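Researcher: I've been going back and forth with a colleague about how Immunoglobulin superfamily member 3 might be arranged in three dimensions. Neither of us has a model we trust, so I'd like an independent prediction. The organism is Monodelphis domestica, in case that matters for your notes. Sequence below.
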Amino acid sequence: QVCYFPSPCVVSAQRQVTVQEGPLYRTEGSHITIWCNVSGFQGPSEQNFQWSIYLPSAPEREVQIVSTIDPSFPYAIYTQRVRTGKIYVERIQGNSALLHITELQARDAGEYECHTPNTDERYFGSYSAKMNLIVIPDSLQATATPQTLQKVEQDSLELTCDVATETSQHSHLSVTWYRQRAGEKPVEVISLSRDFVLHSSSEYAQRQTLGEVRLDKLGETTFRLTVYHLQTSDQGEFYCEAAEWIQDPDKSWYPMTLKRSEGTVVNVQPTDKEFSVRLETDRRLYTVGDPVEFRCILEAQNIPDRYFAVSWAFNSSLIASLGPNAVPVLNSEFAQRESRGQLKVSKESDSVFVLKIYHLRQEDSGKYNCRVTEREKTRIVLLPSPFFLIPIVFWFESSISVEVTSNASTILEGENLHFSCSVRTADRAQGRFSVIWQLLDRRNRRSNIMWLDRDGTVQPGSSYWERSSFGGIQMEQVQPNSFTLGIFNSRKEDEGQYECHVTEWVRAVDGEWQIVGERRASTPVSITALETGFAVTAISRTPGVTYSESFDLQCIIKPHYPSWVPVSVTWRFQPVGTIEFHNLVTFTRDGGVQWGERSASFRTRTAIEKAESSNNVRLSISRASDTEAGKYQCVAELWRKNHNSTWTRLAERTSNLLEIRVLQPGNKSHLPLLQHLCLSQQKKTNCSLQVCSFSDLFPPHLAPKSLSSLKIKSLASRGCWRLIGGQLWCSQGWLLGTSFVWSNVRLKLSQAQGNITVLETQRVELECVVLNRTSGASRLSVEWHVWKPNHPERETVARLSREATFHYGEQVAKNHWKGRLHLESPSLGVYRLIIQNTAVQDSGTYNCLVEEWLLSPSDVWYKRAEDSSGQTIVTVLRPDATLQVDTVVPNVTVPEKSPFQLDCNILSRSSQDSRFAVAWYALRTKAGGKKGNALEDEEIERKAMLSVGPDAIFGPEGNHWEGRLRFQRLSPVLYRLTVLQADPSDTGNYSCRVEEWLSNPQKEWYRLTEEESGPIGIQVLDTGSTLQSIICANDALFYFVFFYPFPIFGILIITILLVRFKSRNSSKNSEGKNGVPLLWIKEPHLNYSPTCLEPPVLSIHPGTID
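Model: Here is an independent structure prediction for Immunoglobulin superfamily member 3. You can compare it with whatever you and your colleague have in mind.
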């Protein structure tokens, strides 16, 4: 059903209930769900559901199971299971529900029906749906031997699991091995899916790829798990889980049943091969003569059972080594010092080894190492040696001072930071500096950015390593006492206190470097996040435009970011009548332009421009049409380019909605807004701009000649607006709008009135003259209307579309206009309606309605204007009646039995195409009437003799004249009726009545007028009565005299003859005896006259006796 606004429309939906497609195969004891959905219903959004089953033993009997509305709905066989929750209905939505059967039984097999009680106004659609459920035995088995295995790290593990099923249906098996520890969730080791695909969890995926975890199928039912190189993390209980899958009718796979085998406990003992070493001392800076003790601490398991060797080294030179027997072996140089009691190497415990120097020398300053080695039968494990750098220094007094400067104390995120660390010191030609740049952030967390050691080697801190590798952080020594730090493309997290930590080094007498002093200085830096204050606003000075005009949309972004800040701007568009926005065009962060997928109609008429000084984006659309009407929205995204050339979107802002109305030219009911223009021109004046509403003011291309013609009461009432020279000014002296031009070009038709009177069947011409039109490129459609007398509603006669196609009106059949209407345009702007063969029904008031159509910029025709012409009254009359019948009164005398004639002579008629109906009447004086008034109507009785219709059909003859009338048409205007065998009773007056009939344009005959001739007097002379006339005048007497005697006499003669014949026979017999002759009678002769003038003569002649 199609609905048109604003007429109310009711769409009646059809209820449709759907249920999960069957048949479904499920195993005993499993949990099954069956969904049911209803749509197209009326009433509340929450529908109710009732489930029933038709068992195979009684397929016609409904067994009720469960209902969402009626607790007493279940039959006794299901009541207990429903009460205990083993059967229940889960409502998914108001119109969707799931039937749950937790422990499926064999007797649950059957045809299930989902029924929804009616909530509609009337029954329409389906209210239930059915599906089949087949319950099969659960034959799946998963068996494994329960056991406990003791394994050592790096051993292999093999476990088997037997999986079998006896299901007759086509099904697939999946097998999964799990490892589970106490209190933890099971971890999938490896699984074989129903599609025969191997898969492992993330913990075992890499080992499966390396082949260390395998699942093999041995025979038909055995699945073997193999794990190579066991790890301590593999410890736990291993078990297999099998699932049997079946494919439902909707092509989805469903696990019918799931079985788990008994588990195998696997314990994995570690091999304890790992160990670690650390080197400890009390401090790092010593002076000559101080004692020092180095402790090498070994961390490992089962140290007494393992073979470790420890060696001490100084500046890569071996000092001493110890085996498991703890007997040190010293180098020759250090052996002498050990013999003098200046040095000692010992084993304090199985895990602690000590090197002690009792009196440090200047040459003892350097790097000390402790190296631990484990020896096995097959390999040697060597651990990297920890070391300490022990400087032995002479005391000097440091005189350095540090000053830190930066390029800015407050910057915008993304700008570069440059720090300079200047060191002032006493003149030490051989002094060096090591510098560490540190950041103390807002949470007082200190982190090393970069440091420069005394040898000029630069190393970044752990948190800045990646940024440094891409050149985002740089440190250099520009002068011997000047160090710089550069941070490029700063981030908000770079905000804080930057500190330069300088350490002064001097070379001692023995050539070793020693620290003589440390100084630090700092400077704060504040970084403003890019998204701070980030906002976007969409404006337009022309929210209402007419066809083919242009309009601009501005997307203003605040704050004004530098040009290097990457901002992408997207214009989104929601066409009129839609609810979704789509991307129109995007100005990308790198300056490119990307058009949306649905912006084809905009591309050729849209220009996008981005200001160099800001990120504001202007969208200019030319030749506006209905396609561009709708709501616009600007979306801005703030981006940051990372050090690794990737991009991070920092923020996204969406502007206000901006509605653009594209109007047909001159449409005063939808005039554009000037509110934005008003608000953008606010100044400190007395004009109350904050309350002025400029909706429906006037289009930009229209300017009224006076303020009163604007009909802007809201502005005029304030008294602060004036129209000067076609411009709208505030009384305070500033211009609001630009100049306007008023256009008077519009569609105009001739308003001349007309009055046309014609006779039927004549031709009528009506003209519709277009005096002016908006555009020479426009097209016109012309529609003719008529208002009939006593009909208040107008009727459409004909229509000429803008494509010059002729169409009849709605009442063409009723008014028989088809074939009689003709529309022509003899010249430009002149349209002529011609009605041929007019009829009285064509009378009425005619006018024409002209619509002017223009082609919009989107190549869609729209109605620009319309106008109606003046009215023309058309009156169609019937011809005047001029029928005239001869009224001369003749008197005729005829003898009895003679004919007499009654002529009907038409002297004139109204039309040569007319037809006549003629009727003759006998005028008789009524009984009791006065003879002197015989011709008066009330004293005369008319007796119809004969009538002939306009279609030459005869009426019945009068009883008195039946059989004695003869009709003749001597000419088109002369009709004669002859009365045969006049009778004295025919004496009297006669007249003829003539009706004139005409045909209308619809070929229908109507009576125009009627006339009656003068009376014709007829006198029939009576010649007297004779026997012949009496007999012939009476039918009964005529038959009695001329017909009945003949059969009577015939019968009499036959009777006599028969008697004579019998008598003769008896006479002959007698004559033979007596000799007497017989007599016979001759046949009688009957004479009669067919003219009935004489009676018949009957003569009987006597016969001769032989």
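Researcher: What would you highlight for our discussion?
Model: I'd start with this: The domain at 401-528 is CATH 2.60.40.10 (Immunoglobulin-like). After that, consider the following. The first strand starts at residue 16 and ends at 19.
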